[in-house]
Amino acid sequence: MINDHHMYDKLINITDERNVMVNEDLMNHTYTRLGGKADFLVKPETYEQVQEIVKLANKEKIDFTLLGNGSNLIVKDGGIRGIVMNLQKLTQVKTNATTIVAQSGARIIDVSREALTKNLSGLEFACGIPGSVGGALFMNAGAYGGEVKDVLESTIVVDREGNQLTLKAEELDLDYRTSNIPDRGYIVLEATFSLENGNYEAIKAIMDDLTYKRESKQPLEYPSCGSVFKRPPGYFAGKLIQDSDLQGKQIGGAQVSLKHAGFIVNKDKATASEYIDLIHYVQATVKEKFDVNLEREVKIIGEDPN
Fold first, then answer.
1. In the chain, what are the domains?
2. CA–CA separation, 172 vs 5, rounded Å?
3. Which residues are catalytically annotated?
């Protein structure tokens, strides 16, 4: 990259030295424990800093990538050029009557737990989703019959030019595991969830049941990106993979989970290339055997290794 020191000085001027990392290994910041290095990894602490970093990237004509908390993501082995932004320092969660306002770096699990402590119902489905609030909006995260779309009231975002906008939920085109956030280049700063008064014991019973289902069925003992594929219409991805005799299939250190076929785990120091090759192998095998196209739910970003 041209003039590393120039860019570093500009970034620490916006935030500070604690929040700017140079040539940082992204495998330390993703759930899969995969990925090469970022030229600059920056962790803003305020909404204004987010805006300033976006404006700086535009002014300097430098590549800019939002990482989220790295849960539903594969970063390629060549890493990511330019500025990578992580919002894990924006984690404030506030409750007001039946409304919860959560910053984008907060984990959606923690927001569901906050709802429980305030006897609020509607976010029970999120008690096992590992992603951040921003990531949950980005892909309209859902589980066990519930989704973000059901409870989201509004959001504050930063657009590609660095402007701050307040949008109603219906302006995000939320649908099954999609929204218009990636297409429009929005960076979610916070979300407002509209919930209903409920009974603590009843809410907790649902969350306990969903947590048990998740822990008993999902391979949480290995790094993974969660559910790799979207559910194809009329089928279950995990069942198709299982019926294709792919459980246990391994490429390098990446393996189709023996516990849940819809997961690919980093069993033994896998590279991102091995993980991605295994995704393609599963897609090709299921297509050949059942003529069903498995669409990825996980996002792949970054560059191939040299």
1. 4-85 (3.30.43.10), 93-202 (3.30.465.10), 219-297 (3.90.78.10)
2. 38
3. 177, 227, 297
